[in-house]
Amino acid sequence: MHKGPTPTFAQIRTVSAMNVENFYIIATAPNEPTLQVNISGPYLTRQAAEADLSAAIGEAVDLDPAAKDYEYKISKIACQKPGVIQHMACNMGQRL
Q1: With contact defined as beta carbons under 8 Å apart, do 21 and 76 qualify?
Q2: In whole angstroms, what is the distance from residue 59 CA to residue 3 CA?
Q3: In the sheet where 32-43 sits, what is the strand order?
Q4: Which of 11, 15, 89, 91 has the most crowded Cβ, counting Cβ within 10 A?
Q5: Which pLDDT band holds residue 81 (cuts at 50, 70, 90)?
Q6: Alpha carbon of 72 to those of 10, 32, 50, 58: distances in Å?
Q7: What is the pLDDT of residues 20-74, one digit of tens each?
Q8: Cα maximum dimension of the chain
Q9: In this structure, are residues 61 and 67 in contact, taking their beta carbons and an 8 Å threshold?
Q10: If DSSP codes are grouped into helix, strand and coil, which group holds residue 57?
Q11: Are 25 and 52 in contact, with CB atoms under 8 Å apart?
Q12: What angle do the packed helices 46-63 and 84-95 form, to 10 degrees?
């Protein structure tokens, strides 16, 4: 289960206020290095991404037990879309 704070819909909607480049927690499958997924983000600062790193990894493992073997890194990329975890949280809120 999610160990960190669950983002609210309002927090997810703030994506439009993000920078052109933002920090994301990215998962890479060990047997397929070209397969990379933005699992969490966007974050305005590296420190914010680092603070959420262990919770995001825990959430990824809850969703897919194979994720325990993935490699995780924080990268600054030109993107404003929500990571997989935020996307799922937003969609779950719309279903309730």
Answers
A1: yes
A2: 7
A3: 32-43, 21-29, 71-78
A4: 89
A5: confident
A6: 27, 13, 11, 12
A7: 888 999 999 999 988 888 888 889 899 999 999 999 999 999 988 999 999 999 9
A8: 37
A9: yes
A10: helix
A11: yes
A12: 60
**Distance, CA of 34 to CA of 89 (rounded, Å):** 26
Read off φ and ψ for residue 26, nearest 5 degrees. -115, 135
Parse the chain into domains and list their residue ranges. 9-95
Return the SS3 of 69: helix
CA angle 59, 73, 22 (to 5 degrees): 90
Q: Cα–Cα distances in Å, from 11 out to 15, 18, 43, 86?
A: 8, 11, 11, 9
pLDDT of 17 strictly over 60: no
CA of residue 58 relative to chain centroid, distance: 11
40: which strand partners?
A: 25
Query: For position 79, what pLDDT does the model report?
Result: 80
